[in-house]
Structures are given as C-alpha cells and as structure tokens.
Amino acid sequence: MITITKKEEIVFNQIKIFHLEYDEGIPENLIKMELGIYEHELREILKELDNKNLIEYKEKKIKLADFDKSINAVDSRQEVIKADLDVKEQKSLEVIEKLADQDRTISKYILEGNLLYGDLKLSNFRMYHIILSLENKGIIKPITKSDGEYYLLI
To answer: What domain of life (predicted)?
Structure first.
C-alpha cells in the first residue's frame, strides 16, 4: 500500500483525468492552472508522487506510471510518516522472526546489526525507535542472559 497526503491525492486524481488526453505527458502548467495551486507547491507534490513511483515527472511533463498497489490518502505528511513507520516495524518484525532461535530469543547486537546493515538499512535513530516501539507494544522484551543481552520475541 502506498500512503499519500490529501493534496497529493488531489493532484494525482487530476493527472489520472488528463493522462488519456496527453500521450507525451501532461504539461505541469495545465495541472497548476486547473487546481489553482502555487508552482513550488505543485513541484514538491509531483516530486513526492514521482518518488513513490505513481507518476513519471521529467522536464515539466507528467505521465501516469504503471502501478498495482492500493493508495491510502491521509490528512498530513506526519500521518504518511507514521504509516510508513508501521510498514518498517512490520519488516523489522519479519527480520526478528527470521533471526530468532528455538527459544524465540535473538542477540541484541545481531538484531541491531541486521537492522542497520541488512536489507532494511535503517539509520541508528530509526532502528532504536523501532525497537523501542516494538518493546512498548509488547512484541519484544529485552532480557539478560549469562552470555549477553538479548530480545525475547513474545
């Protein structure tokens, strides 16, 4: 699922309307005039939609990209970040489940290393934020064994 803001949804819907009429790309100015928004705001929104692979935005021309994911619109950029964090938490949990042994424990340092340098490539801050979030949700629990610090998958 792709999460976008309400403003991004408005621009995206307008692009979907115009894309049949403009095979070589919709002119940026047409969207700007139709929606009555500032040029810098429109460019920011178009870059976000391009980063999410919903459109192709080059040389002030916009094309609708082929995508097969559902789109969820939220009110603010903060809610987009929150929804993305939940996706990262889910992927982190999958990593934890893969690394956990029969006792459902995983070394703290092995987990941190996999989150930092594995497929997710999280930043230090993001990794600790996700681990703390999973702890607060009661999914993992920090424990100490005789040979080091571990997390218990509950």
So the answer is: Archaea
